[in-house]
Amino acid sequence: MATNALFTEREVALLDYTINTREHLIQKLTENGNAPEKSADKMLLVQLLDGVDKAIHTKAKLKIEDSNSQQQEQTSAMIGELLRRIDPKEYVAVSRGINDKRDIPVTICVVDKLPGEVDITPAQLTYETFMGLDSSD
Prior knowledge:
With 137 residues, the chain is an all-alpha fold. The chain has one domain (1-132). Helices cover 59% and strands 0% of the residues. The protein is built from four helices and no strands. α1 (9-29) packs antiparallel against α2. It starts with 8 loop residues before the first helix and ends in a 6-residue tail after the last helix.
């Protein structure tokens, strides 16, 4: 079940054998459908179940990591292809205003600030002033 790129055939066979042995021992310890009577057998059963769980989770993690690395390789390949298609001379020319083949903004439009916009202590409005309820009108 493990990814062949990560393990040799012998390692895959050994992992499968180990899991099958654990499963067989679990079946033997729970033959009658009940938990074992002896505390040593109970501890063994818990350890066997933990081992099987860890093996399953490890395989899942390996599959996820393998999938993520494949996706990362594909993304890197797409970005590399995109970068190979871009002509840097074309973008330099646009920034200098020589060639307008592409609509890439090269300057940022600065908007004038409103009065009081950057004041450290702006004038405070009361509710009455804000709502136009000020009696000074």
